[in-house]
Design a protein that fits this description.
The protein is mostly helical. The protein has 3 domains: about 45 residues, no CATH class; about 110 residues, no CATH class; about 140 residues, no CATH class. The chain contains 15 helices and no strands. The longest helix has about 35 residues.
Amino acid sequence: MKARVRTLLAHPVVRNLLFERVLVTASAALALAALVTGRVRPSEIPGLLDARLLALFFVLTVAVELGKHSDLFDRLVAAVVRRARHARTLAFALIGVTGVSAALLTNDVALLLVVPFTGLFRKVAEVDLAPLVVLEIAAANLLGALTPIGNPQNLFLFWRGGFTPAGFLRAQAPFVAASAILLAACVPLLVPRRVFEPPETSAFGVDPSLAAAFGILLALAILAMSVGLIRSETASDLRTLTATGASGTTRRNLTAVTAGGLGFAGAVLGTVAAYVAAIGYAFDNKLDGLSELTSVPTTNLLLIVIGMPLAAAAVGWLFAGREQSALGRRPLE
């Protein structure tokens, strides 16, 4: 019997599901159990699916894969290792990046971006990734709690508690500061001392088309979250528009203009910031130098500065959707 169990566990499919896809397997098992026990009826499943949220995570997943296949992540990893030089310095940097990203983009989105990036460090440095990922998960949930959009629980507390943004930051700051100190104290305990050998940057050639596609999809995902938050903030205005007879087309147009405007502003500012960062990085880099910046990727820049805002406006118009019939009435409190 034991031999059969070992043989079954050694099967590639079973091993992949149990040891490499634990979360997917557990989620599928729980979903099946809910159906079998009658807690969820098959007719209720469509109403439980959030198509917009699933689409957002799909776009982020595709963006991350494009970033990896473009070798952009590899180039960034090599640059980080060259600058950090020590494993503990790298851990502190990843905690900071994850915390800031979670506070601005929500904890789930931050982990979707940072954890795949962290996995690439094994290509250029001998480092145990498990403690780094654990610290990143803790940072996303603890440090990301600083802002209302850091995690779903914060959004609930923000709306139900009647906080202003400044008031919420003041309430969360002591907790987040204490969490940051504890995370910093955990670094020497979890991450051993290790000095990195400077990697060869020339080994990674970035594909500009795939890198531009990564940037566009990432920006569109961030825009989708920003527009969603703006629409929730202006829900009372939308109720007023609906009550005065504004059509669904009007609401769609407002969303499209908002998304397009934010997309254009983000594209311009992001392009300028990227060139400033590239110049600062290449200025004292003996391997790259400023010569690489003389070739301007005109097509990719046009796609980012013009194509992305147009795509954001189109997606915003399509996904604005029909408002619920109760939107025209302010709920009683």
